[in-house]
Design a protein that fits this description.
Distance between the termini: 191 Å
Radius of gyration: 71 Å
Largest sheet: none
Oligomer: single chain
Structural class: mainly alpha
Order of helices and strands: HHH
Strand content: under 5%
């Protein structure tokens, strides 16, 4: 039985030592409070007051300010992202506009070249047609000239033949008979007309 009581006595001794250590630490804390002039009741009230003031400041001052700062930060980030997106879109739009301008210039150059080619072909066709018309006119003019020349030549022959006959009649009228004159007239007329 003694062996059973020994552990209990030891445990009790430890408890007494712990209580005495606790009492000593409580005495030490009380001595510290007394040394610095701290009253535990007032300290507890100050802690409660500080907690209330800290909560009120956090709830009604710091929290809205922090929320506003966070909102502004989000707006700034959103604005920066928007600006970056717009810069990228602007660069893309500039690239596309350069591409469109280059394509338009290429198409314009192609149209100008086709127009030049068409104009040259049209000019060549018109020049060829004008040349053909001029050649036709020249040919017709030459035909008209030739016809006029033949007509004039024929008229001149006829007139010359008439003059020759008339002159011959006058010269020969006194010396030739009527039958000789007719024969000379016919012969002269045949020679002049080429019949």
């Amino acid at each position: 039985m003694f062996s059973v009581l020994l552990p209990i006595a030891e445990a009790t001794g430890h408890a007494v030592e712990a209580a005495s250590a606790h009492a000593e630490s409580a005495n030490a804390i009380t001595q510290i409070f007394d040394t610095f002039g701290i009253k535990p009741e007032l300290l507890l009230a100050q802690i409660v007051n500080f907690s209330i003031v800290a909560f009120v400041l956090w709830r009604f001052a710091f929290k809205p300010v922090v929320a506003t700062i966070e909102e502004r930060q989000k707006q700034i980030e959103s604005g920066l992202k928007y600006a970056a997106d717009m810069r990228a879109k602007l660069e893309q739009a500039q690239f596309e506009s350069q591409h469109i301008i280059q394509k338009a210039q290429d198409e314009a150059a192609k149209i100008v070249e086709e127009t030049r080619k068409s104009a040259k072909e049209f000019g060549d066709r018109e020049q060829k047609a004008a040349t053909e018309r001029a050649n036709e006119l020249i040919a017709k003019a030459q035909q008209v000239i030739e016809l006029e020349r033949k007509k004039m030549f024929d008229e001149a022959r006829g007139e010359i033949a008439r003059l020759v006959v008339a002159t011959t009649q006058r010269v020969l009228a006194k010396e030739l008979s009527e039958a000789d004159r007719n024969r000379y007239n016919e012969s002269a007329a045949r020679e002049l007309t080429g019949v």
